[in-house]
Amino acid sequence: VIAIDGPSGAGKSTAARGLARELGFGYVDTGALYRSVAWLATRGGVDWSDGPALAALAGSRRFEFDPEGRLRIDGEPVDDRIRTPEISRGASVVARHPEVRRALLAIQRELGRQGGVVLEGRDIGTVVFPDAEVKFFLVASVRERARRRYAELRARGDEISFEQVEREQVERDRADRERAVSPLVQADDAEEIDCDGLDAGEVIELMKSRVAARFPLTWDTKNTK
Ligand code: C5P
Fold this sequence. Notes:
By secondary structure, the protein is of the alpha/beta class. It has helices spanning 12-23, 30-44, 51-59, 85-94, 98-112, 124-128, 142-155, 162-178, 200-214, and strands at 2-5, 26-29, 63-65, 71-73, 76-77, 117-121, 134-139, 191-194. The protein contains nine helices and eight strands. Strand 4 (71-73) and strand 5 (76-77) form a beta hairpin. Helix 2 crosses helix 3, helix 3 (51-59) packs parallel to helix 5 and helix 4 (85-94) runs parallel beside helix 8 (162-178). The chain is globular. The two termini are 33 Å apart. Cytidine-5'-monophosphate binds at residues 8, 30-31, 34-35, 91-92, 95, 121-123, 172, 176.
């Protein structure tokens, strides 16, 4: 199990997906699960403040990630419907409820159970898989993270200003770091990677070299005849 945590916009998703592809591992974007709970709630008329009802909603659906790391709920792809600024806000609100975290914890552990998987989120190395073999904590400056997120949203056609993206990012980070259950913290044994000034390819190479150092590919010459 490879755990990748860090604040939003640090470049976790691109790096995690790329690393998984290079290693032939599965990829689990756990933020997509929290986003989906907020999205399902909005569609089903469940309030983001109602922890038990949100948990029941999460528990009644089947979540799976296809080989490309795209989330399906009950077999249906959710696509970009969970990527709007409103659902970003909703995800960080629903993520505060212990009932929701408990429901999604079981799902995340099940998705990573067999190993050979990269999981990306906020509490993977601390709570979901505290015994993960390899842990990374990706960081970047607020400006750089807002810049990435802004480019992403504009590319999708969202008419949002840079200032608004930056403001919402700071607010979401604060909520993630200060919440009572499973706050965003770096695991003691996680390696921090500062992604400022690095492109996704460089971050992936760095992570790959760490994985290789931890699990060297060895060949015992005595067994070759
Ligand atoms: O990673 P992403 O920005 O898609 O996550 C959306 C929100 O879901 C985060 O702001 C955070 O509040 C929540 N989350 C979480 N724990 C995780 C993954 C995401 O609380 N493991």
